[in-house]
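During the no-cost extension, the postdoctoral fellow (Dr. R.K.) reprocessed legacy sequence entries with the updated structure-token encoder. One reprocessed record is reproduced below for audit purposes.
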Amino acid sequence: MRINHNIAALNTHRQLNSATTNQSKSMEKLASGLRINKAGDDAAGLAISEKMRGQIRGLDQASKNSQDGISMIATAEGALNETHDILQRMRELAVQSGNDTNTNDDRKQIQAEVDQLAKEITRISGTTEFNTQNLLAGGLNNTFQIGANKGQNMSVSINAMDAKSLGVSRDTTAASMTSTNTAALSGVSDAGEGLTNAQYSVKVTTSAAALTGLSGSDASVKSNGSGSELTVGGTYTGRDDVASLVVKATGVDSNDFVNKVQYSLDGGVNWNEADISVTGSGASTLTGTGLTIALDGSTTNAVGDTWTFGATASKATAQLADAAGTTNIGSAVTIKNDQTSATIGNSSTDATAKISFNFAALTASTGANTKFDLASVGSNAATFNTDGTVATEASAAGGINVSTQSKANSAIETINKAITTVSTERSKLGAVQNRLEHTINNLNTSSENLTAAESRVRDVDMAKEMMEQTKNSILSQAAQAMLAQSNQMPQGVLQLLR
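Re-encoded structure tokens follow.
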């Protein structure tokens, strides 16, 4: 018998520690519901379980991402629905304006509504946002993370949906010009329709002789009388449709002064009565519509005498060009001396401006250039910063031109193309939305299956663990009893010492 080492007690103590440790582990698992609470429980299982957990949480977040993507697309598509309605109204107005039962005033009112509708399309494009991101300005090119891992994404872009990008806006020009020679041209009385640049040159060319008046050599020989030339003093202001002026004396006083005349602007076909007054040194001044001429009484005049002046009508030409004056816009327009305004430019491209002028104040210098600054208002699409944010918002100066029958007819086709463009964009967005809905279903299914797999690795089988805990509890109690017994074994040595 040995008393220095109680081998039975040592063994029992070891078994008790083991049972207590196992019981503690079982209680830990039962309390947490997890089979793996720390790496020591199952190192490989822990690594597998953590990877699965990453996948599950990634899938769940990808599902939320897809939901957010659907929300963004639904916002954009809802705005495009309104754009579609506006385009349909614009088309309706274009069809209405294409009917010649409408007067010019009617078409002005139609054009005014079309202009406002174009501006609203651009406003919708500039203000439709999702989480502060502009959706319809044309800069959206987003990537949706729709999977748990790298590269599992999809891209969505939305083209610009403003009036300029859809082709249903036009540029306009403000209704004023400023000139360095305001005596020559008094400005612009009506806005240009489609001028796109900021500066233009209006070249005015006039005939100096027509503006300074007729000299004696411009008068023809008197057809009745002595045959001497009639001396012309003063000025002759011709008309645009007159190639010659015929003056017939119908009354002469005792001093041979013509005191009554008729004049013809069509070579003697039609005659008009004219008032006569005697001024200066016996000159008779004939004043009639469109002309002022002095008849010198120093020559013999008789009733029936006629004088024919082969003078061309006073006129000038105006040409709209670029700011440098080197590139013409449209054809030159004749300004006639009985006009106060003229439209210059290219009407086929709507690049026109209506100038008003005082003909008598035009300078006589041939080829004179008169510069104007036009306050152009342009329609433009949005521009973007490097980070994708909008730098310059889109603008629409006016809507597509429906001011005439032919332009309204062309506008119908243009609006049809815009409607098709919006339809294509909406169809694309609808397809993406449907795709995302399927993506969400797949993500949720994958997350469910992976959760089940992770549960099998990580979660504890409560029934089985209860069995283990019960066993370990009994073993622990038994070990405690045996330890008490083994501690009594050295007491037997005392019996031998008595």
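Residues 210-309 form one domain. DSSP finds eight helices and 23 strands in the chain. The remaining legacy entries will be reprocessed before the final report is submitted.
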